[in-house]
Amino acid sequence: MLRILNDMSLSALVAGFVAVLIGFASSVAIVFQAAQAAGADSSTIISWIMALGFGMGATCFFLSLWYRSPVITAWSTPGAALLATSLGNITYAEAIGVFVFAGVLTLLTGVSGLFDKVMRLVPLPIACAMLAGVLFKFGLSIFDAMMSDVFLVGIMLLTYLLSKRLVPRYAVLFVLVAGVAFVLARSDGSLVSNIPSEVGGLVWVWPECNLGALLGIGIPLYIVTMTSQNIPGVAVMRSSGYQTPVSSLISWTGFTSIILAPLGGFAFNLAAITAAICSGEECHKDPKRRYIAGLSAGIFYGLAGLAGASVVTLFSIFPATMVAALAGIALLGTIGMNLKNAMADDANREAALVTFLVTVSGVSFGGIASAFWGILFGAICLIIGNVKLKAKG
Question: Is residue 372 part of a domain?
Fold first, then answer.
């Protein structure tokens, strides 16, 4: 406890809060759609939010504390999108069975060490290029949002530029304060007063087995979660210098998915976007003290789960333009650093560029996300480049 207090910093606490804010506000609507597609009623949807909040809170807090690194977990957003379009023809109990099955596959992947072995084969420039590609659209979203709300986003961006020069550690905090202050100032005060004070409760449903659903939905859920979430999540940690055991982290997310699936915790995984916020220099100059952001995110995720329905309304009061701008501004430093690391080595530059472009393109083959194909195409370029060099030699 004394060490945690000594390592505590306001910038890390804020990074954890911003990660939770962006994590919820950016994709909670997709979770609602997935729950409704599964046949969940209003009380069951609240159970989903609570289970997801508790699961992310526990894994963020305890894994960050154990490994002394900012381990940030999240629900599977692409998984939720997949479920929203795939669960219409099965019962809710069978949907729970799908969640448990996908969690078991994730747990086996972690315990076997297979994922860790694959990730060790990915060169750092390729991983950095892939991560930059994943985050690139968030940088662009700053200016897309500015087209819709030029004054709000303009004030946030100006605040960032000024605070980055004067108090760089707290730049994101000032951006958040400026955005919230502007939103409240131009409202009539009804935003906060309309938030209900509901908590809700957990709803347990025993899973049922439907072989067709397990193969047709469970395996794709596992694949998109691993390729779209866990691969970028590992890339974030590696690009920030953290060598946290990947297999153990994957195992814990799979175990958490299995335990909380009957309550609505459909899939947990390593985060990428929010993890980048908690592992960069804006969080803290000292990488050894950034784990506090993981603890902070864990606490805020737990509170979000405890609040149930109220927290959904709370996060939804912020305009989409503010959330998009906040995410993009918070990730500017990470995008720049990963582009630098990806392109620094002449020998790997072309392969890294191909990785970046494929990832940014959003191309998807067989339902597998572009992050996976970016790494694959980049690796092929790297292999061919090495063969040419050897042939010349």
Answer: no
